[in-house]
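User: Working on a comparison across species. This one is Cytochrome-c peroxidase from Rouxiella badensis. Can you predict its structure so I can line it up against the others?
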Amino acid sequence: MANKRVVLSDVAQMAGLSKATVSRYLNNSIVLPQQTVQRIENAINTLGYRANSLARRLSMGGSETIGLVLPDIANPFFAELADAAEEAASEYKYSLVLCVTRNNLEKECQFIRWLDTRQVDGLLFTTNRPDNGQLYTELKDQRNVVLIDEDVPGCEVPKVFSDNVHGGELATQALIDAGHRRIAFVGGPDELMSVRERHQGYRQALAKGAIAYDPALVLYGDYDRVFGRQALDTLLALPTPPSAIFAASDYLALGLLDGVRARGLSVPGSLSLVGFDDAIYSDLITPRLSTIRQSARELGRTAVEALIQRLNDDASPNTVSRIPVAWIARDSVSAYPPKP
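Assistant: Here's the predicted structure for Cytochrome-c peroxidase from Rouxiella badensis:
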C-alpha cells in the first residue's frame, strides 16, 4: 500500500468532499469557504497528492503547451531558434515541446495532428522539404499554426520569414565589390521558397553589376554539408570554374570548405566563399565565414508572439513578417584578381 499512487478520490475522501468539488477547486473553477479550502490542502499535503497537470489543463480547454516542429537540431541555426522560442514561450507561461522530424513527412503530419487531440494548443512549424501537397492538406484547416523560415504554399496562417531576397543580393554584391565576376550560387532544393528568394537576390545583384547570368554556375540539392562538397566538385570541373561562391546556407558552406581542403586548396586564397545564416560556428571556423546574418533568435521569438496572438485573438490576421538581414564581413572573401 505504501507504493499505491494517490489519486483524486483519495484526496476527496480524506477531505470529506465529493471528487467533483475537489476537481473544480484544483481547476480554479469554484469558490469555496476558507475552512473547506484548508481541508483540501491538508489532505493534499498529507497524502502527497500530485495532480496530473496535463489532464487538468485539458479539462479547461487547453494544454498551455506549444509545439515547435523542426527538421533538424544538429544544425546550430535550428538549435538557436529553439532556444529563443522556449524563452519567449516561457514568458507567456507556456511550455514548449520540441518535435524533431528529420524532414520525414509522416512525422510532420503526425505532429500537425497533435492539434486535433489538443496535446498542444498551437504549433510553430518549420520544414526543409518541398511540399508535395500533403502538408497543405494537413494544415489548411488548422488555425493555431505559425510557419517559420520556410513556406508551405497555399496555407493561410501567420508566417515568419527572413528577408531572403535582400540577403541574396547583399551576399552577391559583396563578392562583386571584391572584383569577382564569375560567381556561383549553391542552394538547397529549388522548390523551397527560401532558396528561390536567395537565388532571386543573387540574380538581381548580377543584373545590377551588368554580369551575365550563367546557369552552369547555379546548383541545387539538399540543404546539407554533403551536397556542399559535391557541388564544389561539379563547379571546379567546369571549363571556367568560378572564383567565388555564394552558398544559400552556412551548412552548405561547411561542405564547400570540406571540398576545398580535400583538394589542397584554400579559402579565400583559391576561392572566395559567402554563406547565409550567421550560425554560431561561422565566427569559429578557419577561415571565419563571411555571411548573411538572419537572426534565428528573432525568428523564434517573433513566431511565438504571433502564435500567442493567434491563441488569444480570434481576429488575428494572417500576416507575413520579414526579419531583417545584414552583411557580416569576415575572412572568407578576398579581392579578385589576386595580387601577384
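For your comparison, note: The chain has a mean pLDDT of 91.

User: Helpful, thanks.
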